[in-house]
Amino acid sequence: MSDLVFPEGFLWGAATAAHQVEGDNTNSDWWAWERRPGTPCREPSGTACDHYGRFPEDIALLADLGLNTYRFSVEWARVEPSDGTFDPAAIDHYRRVVETARSHGLVPMVTLNHFTLPAWLADRGGWLAADAPRLFERYCRQVVGALGDAVDWYCTVNEPGVVAFGGYLGALGFPPGTRDVGSWRTAIGGLVEAHRRARAAVKELRPSARAGATHSMQEWEASAGGRPVIDYLRRMNEDAFLEASAEDDFIGVQTYTRVRLDVPAIAAPLVRAALAVPRIEALAVPWIVGRETRRAPAAVASDGVRATQMGYEFRPEAIAWTVARVARMYPGKDIVVTEHGVATADDTERVEFIAGGLASLHRLLGEGVPLRGYVHWSLLDNFEWARGYEMTFGLIGVDRATQRRTVRPSARMLGRVAATGRLAFPPKPAADA
Ligand code: IFM
Fold this sequence. Notes:
Helix 14 links the parallel strand 10 (334-339) and strand 11 (371-377). Helices cover 43% and strands 17% of the residues. It has 15 helices and 14 strands. Mean pLDDT is 94; it is low at 295-299.
């Protein structure tokens, strides 16, 4: 058994997102979506983890573990509840969240948009509205201006590929629930532009802060026949956004699993040709996605594969595959793992997942990859979008009836790694973790 040693100054954190933890985010598109008949939402977000009121306690727990970074999002729907009207109380709230994090010696990492939109913008089409990127920039300027020199790390748009694919191609049961390739492409364009404008606003208002998008990426594996589909999905869901990150100060990488596709080689030319013809693409892609969504929402693990609550293959080291891909794409650029986590009812699995992921990342550090931090998803059990509260991703459990927090062994294990900069490998049994 030997320790894996991580660099000095490494960011060790845990993440949340406003809508998933704060509660009562009533002015957002998701709040309405969760209540709309016919959407695949299992339950409404309601009071969530009451993090809006309990953030001081939650941040103190995070700091006590030994972590040094708190990634959280500012809620656009609260800050700008109606078009052009900014709520000073909401802005002040996020200023207090930042100050609380800093008072504990934590680095606040602020996400400017994590999936949700104000309802007034959703009513105009959300990311399909031509002026959505400009409106996003206007909101970002308010937030960055107000937080001033207290924030050094900004994540512009969280997982834009998931927003576009999940909401505008209808793949994940996200709003607005359009289901066509045209809307998907328009949303991709809007999100790319929104990211660019947000980054430019951060750099103008706070030149020394670091700005980057946070990308949902998969480890992809395909048989010969599956490659055209994988290439297509990777181009639309990842590369379209990664290419827009060329000027970012860092690339945020978020990976949960591996996606495998087995299609006989003989089908490859046919699939490739079909996806290149817009009219066939427009018919085929929503059909494929619809079929997959009905079969098992967000599930990718096939029979015999160890699966998480989400139905994903349990594959902690997928994170090193995606980080390595980004490092090849942008040699020398800083990379931060801004999310990595597992939905499981068994916390020993989370310990294993964290240790496996960190060990795989440690190998990349040894090869010189400029990885600057690891932020775990999530600090708390929370509202997992259309899948509701059944998915437990938290380092800290939340009893929603009492709002009681329970610090899990995985949280202590990650905290110890953070505090010492060392991971005992192979990991100790969970009982000692
Ligand atoms: O809960 C989500 C988060 O909002 C974005 N990244 C993936 C997480 C787990 O599915």
